[in-house]
Amino acid sequence: MNVVLLPGDGVGPEVMAEARKALDALELGIAWTDVPWGSAWWAEHGTMMPADAIDVLRGHDAILMGAVGDPAVPDDEALWGLILKIRQELDLWVNVRPARLLEGIPGPLAGRAPHDVDMVFVRENSEGEYAGVGGRVHRGFGHDVAIESSVFTRRGCERVIRYAFGMASARKGVLVNATKSNASRFGFPFWDEIVAEVGAEFPGVVVDRMLVDALSARLIRDPGSVDVVVASNLFGDILTDIAAALQGGMGMAASANLSPGGGVPALFEPVHGSAPDIAGRGIANPVGAIWSAALMLEQLGAGEGSRRLMDALETVCRRGPRTRDVGGTATTAEVGDAVVAALAA
Ligand code: GGG
């Protein structure tokens, strides 16, 4: 397995060190390629990645990424120069984000059992509201106009919606469609039509169509009533932060950016950002990063390693040590060490 390690910015290198430690402890023979891309690269070169970056990535089996974003770099430049560029250029069109409350982790919903939060979000990852289409005129004249167009293509919608139906079919047979087709004139009515069309291929799956605002409230009020959600790029981005909060916090959430059948490396990253406010203090929660590493092993066909890593991670969450964002006092490295110890036990 040839894996690119892209620690990125802020707490990215800290959590990635723990993910790598855990993967190395599994002794699966992973060959690492470390790349120093991100905001430090930008400070030196004026770009977030070198010109041949996508070719470098293509030569590997997978990418494990930490986080991107730094106060010194305009946010849109940082994201469009790295994570959004990689997703678009490799056409990593589906972002799968499991959201499960692990035993031992305090969730924000007092009295809820862990099984009340066990969802999978299937987020469109290549177009929609993050297509990068638009423009800005009259800048600085006091009557500026900025246009950000959403792009919904039949190909883009069909493939992610079909993927989500497959996921729902393999789980509980219910797919929540996060939409906003009452207020959107074109994009979401089209999205809903495609959900109905693709749904005809999956007669065993019930579609639960929900306006995204109502769904947001439902996730807080009754998360146990939601299993698989399919969402556009922006809605998926927002809903999965709500879901991460239900899991105990941003540090707990993992994700996989995939291009099923695409013959390109998939990218795995914790859902959290670079958290510059706590970077360098050794207190970031590495669980989302290690969970992302387990998702990577599963995709690479190392199912046994993936299961062992998840078991170890769940043992540590249950028994501790835990970082302070989830009620403990441990450092990032202490949690990583405990995962390695649980793997050896
Ligand atoms: N590790 C994920 C990360 O750095 N995320 C930054 C972010 O805001 N990404 C936006 C997105 O996921 O679309």
TrEMBL record:
PANTHER family: D-MALATE DEHYDROGENASE [DECARBOXYLATING] (PTHR43275). Keywords: Lyase, Manganese, Metal-binding, NAD, Oxidoreductase. Its cofactor is Mg(2+); Mn(2+). This is Tartrate decarboxylase. Its EC number is 4.1.1.73. Pfam families: Iso_dh. Coiled coil: none annotated. The keyword DNA repair does not apply. InterPro entries: ICDH/IPMDH, IsoCit/isopropylmalate_DH_CS, IsoPropMal-DH-like_dom. Residues 2-339 form the Isopropylmalate dehydrogenase-like domain. It is an enzyme of class 4 (lyase). It comes from the Bacteria. One of its GO terms (molecular function) is magnesium ion binding. Transmembrane segments: none annotated.
